[in-house]
Amino acid sequence: MSKAVDQTVEYLDMAMRDLKRALNGIPYRTGGFKNTHDQLARDVAVLTVQLDASRGVLREQKK
Q1: Burial class (CB in 10 A: 0-12, 13-18, 19+), 4
Q2: DSSP label of 1
Q3: Beta carbons of 30 and 24 less than 8 angstroms apart
Q4: Do residues 50 and 5 make contact, with C-beta atoms less than 8 angstroms apart?
Q5: Which residues 6+ apart lie within 8 Å of 5 measured at CB?
Q6: How far apart are CA 2 and CA 58, in angstroms?
């Protein structure tokens, strides 16, 4: 299960990097998109931390 967590965290990281690259040069501050982007980034960060913290619990359940 730990490999699945590692892979999920890695995919989230790649997706956020792709989003950052895609936004380069785009005036995304208009129309409230920046607020949506910032909230998404915060939510993904929280999810990543929770996934990382769940590793111990997932290892215990496997036994």
Answers
A1: exposed
A2: -
A3: no
A4: no
A5: 51, 52, 54, 55, 58
A6: 7
Provide the residue ranges of all domains of the chain, joining segments of one domain with +: 2-62
For residue 32, what is the DSSP state? G
More confidently predicted of 42 and 59: 42
Q: Tell me the C-alpha distance between 60 and 44, whole Å.
A: 25
pLDDT score at 48: 92
- Model pTM above 0.85: no
Are the beta carbons of 1 and 62 closer than 8 angstroms? yes
Let me know: does 2 contact 55? Beta carbons within 8 Å: yes
